[in-house]
């Protein structure tokens, strides 16, 4: 009862401060909900105010970003309009730690909001994070499969062209980035057709198999073996035949011993994971 009276009092309060281009009345209506006390939500939304960072806590925007999925879950997708502006403000924050925090949780927010709101409000932010610093991109990369599986097939296919960009990092010594890419590609095999796997994911997998760091190569052998299994089970047999021929040509007949060694390790993984019938393997 006391909450209801507090809500009634706050909803009728015409003195709520705002710094938006909307009129005070429109701004107030766009932020009003009846799930939690409005004063509490207003206090949370004010955490993105730059003056708060100077007077209260320099990390306050990061705390705001960290809590946002929980606030969104509490309010429900029907009240996303209360948080949308704040989310966009945080996504363009000057501090990379704030953007990084959002990048690590964008897949969770997508589950909360559903496919329509995700496509309209989260995909543009996601695309921005893909071009950000490595510290931000890694948050998107670690949950790439979790996010892409929530998108419609057509929207999901658009990202095939961008996966190659993950091979390029700010620091070439950042091998964990490439290792994470290989892990995610294994999961992504379930989301794409045999042709898409052969056309787009195969070149990336072959590149990772020749990586300078052994940890990246070991995950990549698993990736190639899973690719062989997936293409073998596809309705078009030519993909798996072409893939195996390329493995022989690129690695088995490589003039470097490391390439030939890679071929042996891929064969080992294919047998261990039972990716092909033995006659086909032979």
TrEMBL record:
<keyword id="KW-0677">Repeat</keyword>
<dbReference type="GO" id="GO:0019888">
    <property type="term" value="F:protein phosphatase regulator activity"/>
</dbReference>
<dbReference type="InterPro" id="IPR011989">
    <property type="entry name" value="ARM-like"/>
</dbReference>
<dbReference type="InterPro" id="IPR016024">
    <property type="entry name" value="ARM-type_fold"/>
</dbReference>
<protein>
    <submittedName>
        <fullName>PP4R1 phosphatase</fullName>
    </submittedName>
</protein>
<dbReference type="GO" id="GO:0005737">
    <property type="term" value="C:cytoplasm"/>
</dbReference>
<dbReference type="InterPro" id="IPR051023">
    <property type="entry name" value="PP2A_Regulatory_Subunit_A"/>
</dbReference>
